[in-house]
Write a structure and sequence with these properties.
With 281 residues, the protein is α/β, with parallel strands linked by helices. 43% of the residues lie in helices and 17% in strands. The longest helix has 39 residues.
Length: 281
């Protein structure tokens, strides 16, 4: 009788242990979500940046890019640090946030060297002023013509927000995408948010918009596989036909003051949100 009772107790204990495993896994997932929520709600964030959450959708965007708190994440040219305010604290305990900035010394013209030095200094000042949230964040400098963002196969995620048009205008887009591919681990994610044109644009285009198909082609040419698209940052009110290009819209607002209400009603640009993966094989 005792043997039967003991067997029953052991079976019951084993069943509880098996049932507990999914719950434990769920708790880890929920914990990461809570950590991201806490970072987005952080009191250290600039109120002007918080006001743009309605346009940039940080939680949905980072979730779509599958960013976890235990990963090594490289953000490309983050100045003045809009996403740094979320990612650096989020990754501080268990992961690594790396801000990749353009090396001023890589620029031929003094005005460009001064511009990129100023951007780097702004970001470094932000990090230095708040060690509680940014003390473990790193800054690496790169040459856009031959970019190296870190050791090969060392990053889990590379993120870039509204930068591809600049690389196209500078003629460095192929090199940049190759650099992303090289630094990512096999299976790593490249997350791209970019102003979306109505169709492919010529190399001479200065509007700030990029065609979705041509951006996908750039990434594929570097070896990436398209893993998903999202409309979380879409804006159908954006007509994309402004004399001053995308900079006519918020947050730049390069327009006459009398048109403030008109462009505020449109909001920020229509943006594609694309997730690419570096193949494991």
């Amino acid at each position: 009788m005792r043997t039967i009772l003991l067997a029953a107790v052991l079976a019951s204990t084993a069943a509880v242990a098996v049932a507990a495993k999914p719950e434990a896994k769920s708790m880890v997932t929920n914990g990461m979500g809570a950590a991201l929520d806490a970072a987005i709600a952080g009191s250290w964030r600039d109120p002007k940046n918080v006001a743009r959450d309605v346009y940039r959708h940080p939680k949905q965007t980072l979730s779509f890019f599958k960013v976890r708190g235990d990963q090594t994440v490289i953000e490309i040219t983050p100045s003045p640090g809009w996403y740094s305010e979320i990612l650096a604290p989020y990754l501080r305990e268990n992961g690594q946030y790396i801000a990749a900035v353009i090396d001023p010394a890589s620029q031929a013209e003094q005005k460009n060297r001064d511009y990129y030095k100023k951007n780097r200094d702004i970001l470094q000042k932000k990090f230095d002023a708040d060690a509680a949230h940014y003390d473990r964040a790193k800054i690496v400098a790169f040459d856009p013509k031959n970019p190296v963002f870190g050791p090969a196969n060392s990053a889990d995620v590379v993120l870039t927000f509204r930068n591809v048009h600049n690389w196209r205008m500078a003629g460095t887009a192929p090199q940049m995408f190759k650099g992303f591919f090289d630094v990512l681990k096999p299976g790593g994610v490249l997350g791209v948010v970019e102003h979306r044109a109505k169709a492919d644009v010529p190399d001479t285009d200065k509007s700030g918009y990029v065609g979705q198909a041509q951006l996908i082609a750039m990434a594929k040419a570097a070896g990436f596989v398209l893993d998903g698209t999202s409309e979380v940052n879409a804006n159908p009110r954006d007509t994309k036909d402004y004399p001053g290009g995308v900079w006519t819209l918020p947050p730049t607002n390069s327009h006459d003051a009398k048109d403030d209400a008109k462009y505020k009603a449109i909001g920020e640009s229509d943006r594609m949100t694309l997730r690419f993966v570096k193949p494991r094989a």
